[in-house]
Queue: 2 jobs
Job 1
Amino acid sequence: MLRVDITKQLGEFSLAASFSSEGRVTGLFGASGSGKTSLINTIAGLVRPDRGTIVIDGETVDDTAAGIHVPTWRRRIGYVFQDARLFPHLSISQNLDYGRRMNGLTEDPAQHKRVVDLLDIGALLDRRPGKLSGGERQRVALGRALLSKPRLLLLDEPLGALDESRKLEILPYLVRLRDEAGVPMVYVSHDAAELRQLATQIVMLRRGQVTAFGGVKVLTAGT
Amino acid sequence: MFEISPTEWTAILLSLRVAVIATLVATPFGIALAWLLARRDFWGKSLLDAAVHLPLVLPPVVTGYLLLLTFGKRGLVGGWLADHLGIVFAFRWTGAALACGVMSFPLLVRPIRLSIEAVDRRLEQAAETLGAAPWRVFATVTLPLALPGVLAGMVLGFAKAIGEFGATITFVSNIPGETQTISSAIYSLIQTPDGDTAAARLVIISVVLAVGALIAAEVFARRATARLHGQ
């Protein structure tokens, strides 16, 4: 499903990651500064690796030896950022529809309804992002990413900006997403408890290096 | 005192036409240039930036003379345009529009550039992850979010264009009905005995137009800002 074997020098920091995951949710675990975000941005195509390959769903999106670098917008990925990054000039409805329009996909009311119901955002559709709470914004961001029909969903600490009670509000949605949406995910977090609930496989990062890879139990072994 | 004569009307309408055309034609170029300066790094960027600001610091008569050399009938560009496309700038109202466009260009570009710089690049990134090609990111995210600046730039450019004098009179002279704008009409009237009252009328009209433009810019910018902040 996802194969990564890259190195990247970012100033003083060097990132070297090699793993291959078939899991539904691949958790990228590490302290802040361990290179999680750089790694997920490389998978997204926002950062170009110095060397190596990335394969998503059988398609080589990065291969430095062959000179391949598929730009982000053609990777058919979804990306949920820590700060939801909803478009402030568009309504929630238009935000949700954005990926479909940009990818030239035909309207799919059934899928739209499924996602809106799954995330309980039906009541928000006519509102503006400025009027939403942090938790609501993050749910809309999830919906927006899903509705672009990605082959891989990247989530970079989607709960990171929320307080404890909001986290507990969103977590069940993420579990439902994992079990019902059928889109493989890469989930970045520094919170082992969060990953124990969500991830099926763990890639552990420390100072830019992969220190462990395997089932959720590596979280217990490593910490 | 308040009777506006036909000659004055002609000058007012010509000024409006010249300024509107100058602004409308300059705006797409202004947006493209503002984007380049705000978002791209390339060799000669500071040189280009300086060139854009040149009309602001050069004596207008110099800009007008350079326009005459370049776009006059025997000018490098002007000759070619006249021979191949039949477009003539020299001593025509189109030349006045060109002079006004060039003179107001720095004022047009600056607010647009600032507002493009202020657009959160993380939103552009988000658009990219949702499958938007670079030009669509620009059209659907950057430009709408920079709209208050674009409107402000257009209004400022318009206000500058409508009052432009030095470059216009140098380049296309002061021909009533063709190139005599409000400013050149005032200039002629002040030099004419008994022209004071008519000049005063045009001065009042200039002030009204300029103040009106500034108020319009403020209103547009407020509305657009409110819309963009999700209100």
Note: The interface with chain A takes residues 120, 122-123, 125-134, 136-137, 140-141, 144-145, 227-231 of chain B (CB under 8 Å).
Job 2
Amino acid sequence: MISHHLPVLIVLVPLFGALLSALTSRGSVSWGIALIAMVTTLAATIGLLSEVLHDGVISYEIGGWAPPIGIEYRVDLANALVILIVSTIAAVIMPYARVSVAKEIVEDQQAWFYTMYQLCVAGLIGIAVTGDAFNAFVFLEVSSLATYTMIALGQSRRSLLSAYQYLIMGTIGATFYIIGVGLLLTITGTLNFVDLAARIAVTPYDRAMLTALAFITVGIGLKLALFPLHVWLPNAYAKAPSTGTALLASTATKVAVYLLIRMYFSVFGIDNIIGDFPVLELLLVLSIAAMFFASFVAVFERNVKRLLAYSSVAQVGYMILGLSMATSTALTGTLVHLANHALMKGAAFLAIGAVAYQLGSVSLEKMKGIGRVMPVTMGCFVVAGLSLIGVPGTVGFISKYYLVVAAFEKGWWWLAFMIVASSLIAVFYVGRVVEVAWFSEPDKKTSELKEAPLSLLLPTVVLAAACVFFGVDASLTAGLAEAAAKALFGGSL
Amino acid sequence: MEVLQPILAHFNHWITIFLMVAGLYVVVARGNMIKKLIGLSLFQTSVYLLYISPGKILGGTAPIIGDNIEVYSNPLPHVLILTAIVVGVATLALGLGLVVRINEVYGTIEEDEIFTQEDDDE
């Protein structure tokens, strides 16, 4: 009985968890509620995934109203993968959150942090699970508003400024998206993804449709930090509390990428998009620019959180690159990179959060020799860093392998060369951190430090181990991604 | 009148586009954080118009089932925009709340003055 309602439960559990958390005043009680909610959500997600694998696409009618009139939650392999990423990361970070949040956020605001954490997860899962364009907007705003608040809870006064700037950019992005959806509604008269796809297929692809596509692309592009719309991201990631950064960096941009994929492949239809206006070529150029420019900026960044944030912009470039190549192999690369990047960036930000916990700073010059006093933490960072570069045996290699193969399949050997070349820049920014952390003598302050507490280490080690595990045996992640990409290419929804 | 015809025929859309661009311009051009939020609100409000105005059908009544009623306006946009208004209000409230806090810690809400303070910090 309850298994029938799994698609809506994965949204409702964190939503009501947030409500309960908001009613408590003690941080530890609020944390307990959030932990239960996140673990339940993860369990429900796994149940949902096995249902999708077993029975195929699941359609759930909200309130018993049949689509296209009612809102439909629709789960296929692509969004099951994305939901799995979000709920896994959200649950794995929870043990970490308690100690880190207790140090970084004042006692009477801790309950609010967990409220926002759960609201953000509810919103992100909502975007992924819904089959309704307007409903996706509402969830986009739920997760965004929670994110702004989470960033504003950071330690420095700069956090408030970053939150404000992100609020302006994020709202413009969401409004652009909703303008695009509004145009689609005016053209077709429907909001349901399946219904939209069916009606767009028989509607002439005219200027109004192209305008809708443009608005949706730019709107989601702002949300997923597509170069050059990424300016909000480094400040937002650098100034949020460590736990919040790890959650956002591993999940928020991934869900936006998923929404763009859904719009391009399921709603508009990729054959429609390849028209007179070079949409995919434009995305290709922007993603290559992101891969090089953002990696290059990261090399010169002194704040390690900002360094990793710029690296995120570059990694989003790889995801959009896969989308813009528009072949089944490339899309597999994109989808598998969603999962892989969540693992590696989660591990990297958790490791840096542990450094911030012990050292009280994340600037590179203060981290001299930190690897020698915190070997496990920085060891995890190195594994995550190797994944970012794409060293064989780590998850980063799997993603780049698919992208390079896709480039060769299209005969674009120059693109394969660029993917490898941009990975080399990652060697420099990861290398800088590794050099300072391991090959410099610890100074007076760092030599007195000890290894981070177990609750911080455990989630970091789990994610770093996953980076290696799924790098060696990619049958789960790549297998899911490949099947999802095939389904998306079949145009089925 | 010939020249005005295309403008009058799509009068609602012209208003929508004007509000949209004006709002976006205020967000970009103003350094005062409150004014930026007002611009953002204007921008969001223009979208309400974009949704609602095509929903009206000339000669149509309110969407109530009854005798002799055959043509009625589309009720869906109204419901959607009711939701969008709630989202807009929440965004504005959060934005204003942030500005209050920024004013408390920086003593100003002018962006350029805040950036000068930040440069001094580093």
Note: The domain at 5-121 of chain B is CATH 1.10.287.3510 (Helix Hairpins).
